[in-house]
TrEMBL record:
SUPFAM superfamilies: Diaminopimelate epimerase-like. Belongs to the proline racemase family. InterPro entries: Pro_racemase_fam (IPR008794). The lineage of its organism: Bacteria, Bacillati, Actinomycetota, Actinomycetes, Kitasatosporales. It comes from the Bacteria. Coiled coil: none annotated. It holds the Pfam family Pro_racemase. This is Proline racemase family protein.
Amino acid sequence: MPAVSVPGPDGIRVTDYHTAGEPFRIVAEGLPAAPGDTVAERCATAIGSGGSGTAPRPGPLDALRRLLVQEPRGHAGMYGGFVVPPDDDGAHLGVLFWHKDGFSTACGHGTIALAAWAVDTGLVPAGPDDRDVPVRVDVPSGRVTATVHRAGGRTTGVTFRNVPARVTARKVPVATGLGIVEVDLAHAGACYASVSARDLGLTVGKASLPELTRVGREIRAALAGHPATWHPDGPLLSGVYGVILHEELPDTPEGPRQRNVTVFADGQIDRSPCGSGTSARLALLAGEGRLEEGQVLTHESIAGTVFTGRTVPGGDPADGLVTEVTGTAHRTGETLFTLDPDDALGAGFLL
């Protein structure tokens, strides 16, 4: 087992949040150096030369990621972020998102958690009567602006405005173990493949989770190298990050309602409705004429939690749609993690 060291003599301190049920582990102090002039460059440093988002090269940042995501300190569903300097003074903070397999370029639920944390801790000041506090976060895919909603001096929710979301392909045939299915592709900070669970003979529910996970991994693998998954800014933002398996629910008076499970990286399940994935769904629904300006998508997760999303005016239509996603995040704890040099498990393991 490779040697792993914990930065600092006293271990590494983390703050845990959950956003609509999906964990987010925040590390703001004691990080190894992450060279780069931008958050995107720092993400590339973390991944390492010749590595990929789901197969990073060994290095100090990746060693810390493994320590915090693997058992016994984490689990296969863990998610988190390293707080790093922003690209410039226009943002409050930057973040490198990570999961059990490596690093990602976008994370909506993580952005919601980080914005809540920034205000809750006073990193971004909020007065007792402030109701909407802006928090600007640089992520590897660009600058994301969040608004932290407050009432009675407490955070009640967060809305984030994502990088532009654009549809890149529709009805791409993909062979799976459950038959050939048509997949839609959209970029919203990362590339997402959307497919109707019903077209696979499945429903989005806990009982179907093993089959949903298996077919999500099949679809992601089948689309490797597909030209519609390529991003003009280069390989860091290219390739399918998540597969969204969705089903229709009765519309609300405000607009469509759907339930989804997003299978991302190498078979990790998003417990939340997936924030960046919600932006991708908004772009697809708007392109189908099913979501008009002013309407709201009610987006449910496999755990029954909800995000709401809408398109908003602005931006360059050539870049894609501007979308906003709203959800809630709550702090679940703070931990000081250490590593006993005599611990034979070292950084841990994943099952």
